[in-house]
Structures are given as C-alpha cells and as structure tokens.
Write a structure and sequence with these properties.
There is one protein chain. With 653 residues, the protein is mostly helical. 54% of the residues lie in helices and 6% in strands. It contains 23 helices and 8 strands. Strands 1-8 form a two-stranded antiparallel sheet. It has a two-stranded antiparallel sheet with strand order 2-3. A two-stranded antiparallel ribbon has the order 4-5. α9 crosses α16 and α13 (370-379) runs antiparallel to α14 (382-391). The longest helix has 34 residues, at 399-432.
Length: 653
Amino acid sequence: MPHRWGMAVDLDRCTGCGACVTACHAENNIPTVGDSQAARGRAMHWIRVERYWEGEYPDVTLKFRPVMCQQCDAAPCEPVCPTYASHHTDEGLNAQIYNRCIGTRYCANACPYNVRFFDFFHPQWPKPLDAQLNPDVSVREVGVMEKCTFCVQRIHAAAIDAKAANRELKDGEIQPACVQSCSAKALVFGDLNDPESEVSKLSRSDRGHKLLDDLLRPVVTTTWKFWLLVAVLGSIVAMGLGTWFYQMYMGFGLTGINMPVYWAFYITNFVFWIGISHAGTLISAILRLVNAGWRRPVTRCAEVITVFALMIGALFPIIHLGRPWLFFWLVPYPSERLIWPNFRSPLVWDFFAINTYLTGSLLFLLLPMIPDFALVRDKTTGWRKKLYSVLALRWQGTTKQWHRLESAMQIMAIAIIPVAVSVHSIVSFDFSMAVVPLWHSTIFAPYFVTGAIFSGIAALILAMATLRKVLHLEEYLHPVHFQNLGKLLLMMSLLWTYFVFAERLTVWYGNESAEVQVLRVTQSGTFAPLYWTMVVCNFVVPFVILSLRKLRTITGCVIASSTVLVGMWLERFLIVVPSLSHKYLPYTWGHYRPRPVEIIITISTFAAMMLLYTLFAKLVPIISIWELKVGEHPVAAGKAAELREHPLWKANP
C-alpha cells in the first residue's frame, strides 16, 4: 500500500513557543530577509504560528495555530503551474521542483493558505548561520517559489534505511524538524493510509477539522437539521404566498385598511425592509474605503442582507397594489398607446432607485465571491465542481485578475455609497411630498437614512450572532466585531434620537393644529404605548447597554439589536398610520387595526429572509475566505497603526 503522509496539530497543546519555526529554518535552509524586507511582507516561514485572542474582556485567552502547507489532495497551486514545478507525488505530497520553477508566482496566488514564498533576492544568512546549512537540502536560487515539504529529505532517508533493513516503516519513525522540536507534542506526523498510525486516528477524530474546512463545511455537508429548517421556513413562506393570492382573489376588503388609512402594514414593511438593506452594501463599502481591518469576516454577512432585504422590500409596493397584476405599468416601457408613467410621482422614483441599488448591490456582492467560488471548485467533485466552475468565471488567481478585482471593488465601493443614500432619501419622498400632518417635512430624507443605517446595523449584528452560534464560527466572528458594530449602533441611536427630538420639538413649537393633534395621539393617546415602546427600544436600551464597556458583549449587542429592530418597525408604523388616521378634517378621522392576512404576509417575509439567508449560507461560504486570509497575512510596516487598533487579526509570523 502506498504511503500518504499527513500531519495533525493539537491546538490545545500548542504553546506558541515558535520552536517549530526555528527548527524548520535550520533544517530546510530557509534564508533570512532582514527587518526592512520582513516589514514589506517578504518574510519566509514555511511554518508560522498564528496568534488569536478568544473570549470577552476580561476573560480573554490567547490561542495559537501552527500553519504550514496543507498538502491538499486537489491542490489549486498545481494546475496553474505552467512548468509542472508544483506537482503531486504518489505519497500525497504537494512537491516543488525548484529547477523547473521559473517564478510566475501563479501558485502563490492560487494558494488559499498563503504558505508559498518567493525568493526576491539571492539567499543569504548572517554569520554564523551561514555555517550551519543542511547538506541534504538544496539552497534555492533567486526567482523561485519554495514551500513546506514535510522535510521530504527525512522521509527519503528513513525509506532508504527501512529498505536496506528489509522492513516496513514504523509509525513515528519519520519526524519532520517541526515535529521533532515540539516539546508539547502538539504536532503529529505519519501515514494516513495506516489505520493504526496516530495521525490517522487523529484525522478521524470527531474533534478534528481541516484548516478552512469549518468555513466550507456548510457548503459541502448537509444534515437533517438543514432540511428541517428549510421545510419549516418554506412552509411559512408558502402560507404567505397563498394568503397574498387569496387577498388578490377576494379583494382588499380582507385587510384592515379603511378610509382614510389607505397605507398601513404593507407600506410599513416596505420602508422597514428597504431600511434593513442599508446593513450591507453601505456599511461594507464605508468599511472597505477606510480599510478597517476588522471588517473582513463581516462584509459578506452584511452584503447578503442588502440584496435579500431589497428583494423582499421591493415586493411590498406590488403587494400593496389593488391590482398587482398590473404592476408593470410603473415600468417605463414603450407601450402601444405610448402611455408612460407619471415621472413626477415619487412611486416611479422608487422604481428607478431600488432597481439601481439592487443591481449595484448584486455586483458588490458577487465580485468578491469569485475567488471563493474558485476555492470551492478546487475542493469539490461531481456536480458541485461543475456548478462552481461556472460561477468562478474561469478564475485562476492571476496577478491581472487580482488587480482587476481590487480595482472593481474600489470603484463599486465609491459608487454604491451615494446610491444607497439616495435610495432611502427617495423612499422618504413618498411621504414628504404629500401634504399630510408630520409628513411634509424637510428633514425626512436624512431622518430616513439615519433610521435605515440604524436598523441595518442591528440586523447585521443579529445575523452575525446567529451564524456564529449555528455554524460554529467563533474562531472568525470575535467579540471585537460585535463591540465595534455595537459602537456604531450606539452612535446611530444617538443620531436617531436627535432627529426624533428635533422633529417633535418643531411640531410642538409650530403649534399647527393638525400636526399637534397627531403629536398628541402618538405620545399620549391611542398610539402612546407603541410610541414609548419605540423610545425605550431605540434609545433607552441601546444607550444603557452599549455605552458601558462591560455590557457591550455579544449578548448585550444582540439584546440591543433585537430591541432596535422592534423599535424601528414601530417607528415606521407610527410614521404611516397616525398621520393618515388624523388628517386635517376631524370629520374624516379614522382608525386602523391589522387583519390576519396582513399579519400572515408580514410574518412570511421574515421567514423568507431567514430562508434565503439559510440557502445562501449553504451554497456560498458566508465568510469571505480570501479576504480573511489577506487580513491574516503579514502587512507592511506602514500599517502598524491599523494593527494596533485592531490587534485581533494580526498574524505574527
């Protein structure tokens, strides 16, 4: 039986001493590059010890993770090498033939673990290290790629000795330099094809996992819990669709809408979901532009919310229509009678704004997914490989492709911010352009944008906390991410409170009879319980929890975010219904109470959001793997300030 060499790392035993790194340098003739070159990200370590902090302050623990070449079975670095310098051996090693390497660095681009290194200069060692080179290992010349080989020279030497003695290799007989030097016995090397070997037993352990496999696990494995969740959520969504069709068939009389309250639950949900969409693209774009290092595990979680929230929110103007089958009349198209929509109507503005934002958000989401599609393509087989090969758009990780991707992301980040701001501004125009008490206001646009970002951040925190718990992503979504988002949530809470106070103060001081009546009915009348619940949810709870560092934990952020979402939905409801039910003529004042069809459709949209998010997490790595690895790679000295500000993702080579 051929051998298949592998290594297991016990993360609980690793003390981060760095002996493995030193031993690897000595055994494999790895050159030193000096301080200036190391600061530029050119340090060479075939094995590195990554350092991470886990837990919440003050109970913070330091964790270590040795990372070397993973000797991938379907290594993405091999097919891209034009000279076959990178190839797979019969014993499962991803080998490198230095004499064949011409230095394209293509393999390094394709490697998701950043464990391939380029010789920028002729190798050199300061004295007396130049006198201790290993004669069994060749010294690589300038311009070639090098990497961990599992000390293949030791493997060959042990195989020769065993053959000379006419015996089989024993488990533990071969020890790479890193394994030999590890006093904590955290590294174990052996034959994976030998079921009795220690490394083979460890690889089959329930506690074991491969590097990055926890991010790919939801994509490649499916359990009954997933199908049960999809079935439950799908049933709720189907019930909502059935209720909508029933409403179309029977008429709008099934709803609680009465004169003069012609807008209610559906428009409330429309504004709410469009606001939630600001969780992703706007926040992600701003964090990208300011190069916030802690954003990397967060961006995709956020950007997905934008796309799905826009899709759901855009349905409500159609659900709201008395004749929804004629919704295309809102679309400017050359009809036979040359009848165009009224471009003075804010509802037509919504059509252009939402579609522009949705198109831009889709591009902003899909562009950074291409490298991860390629990664999944290289790690899967069968129909999955075919599917992700199409989605990867022939991505090979060339320098030109990376340059174009980064340029496109930068352009999209700049372009999407004004689009996102304009969308909710235009949504606010649906109200402020109408002569209705408390609607006809000049501050509605910034007020709506602030509320949108406020509710969007809250939705993002809840989504991240759920993913962290369900998909066991504690290693990637750390308390610092929730603390930083909690600070943003606190800032938006204070800004939202300022707008609410300014609006109410202006109405009270102006003393216009209709507006004062709406003010009274919301603050001390029939809508008072909802109004003060909104104030508590949007200001009191977030301010108390998020302003205190000890309470700004993951649990605290989740509690604050949950109340914010409730409060922001109530805020949208209180914008729509009280003003319409108490317009200028008291004789026509009315009331509104939601009916079951409206409640069922509303609930089904939340189920639709969860269903779409679940299916997305199943098909795509929910955390951007390539961005995560870029963030872990050593950076130039010029970014030292950023590392001090966000030490969590600092990789110490």
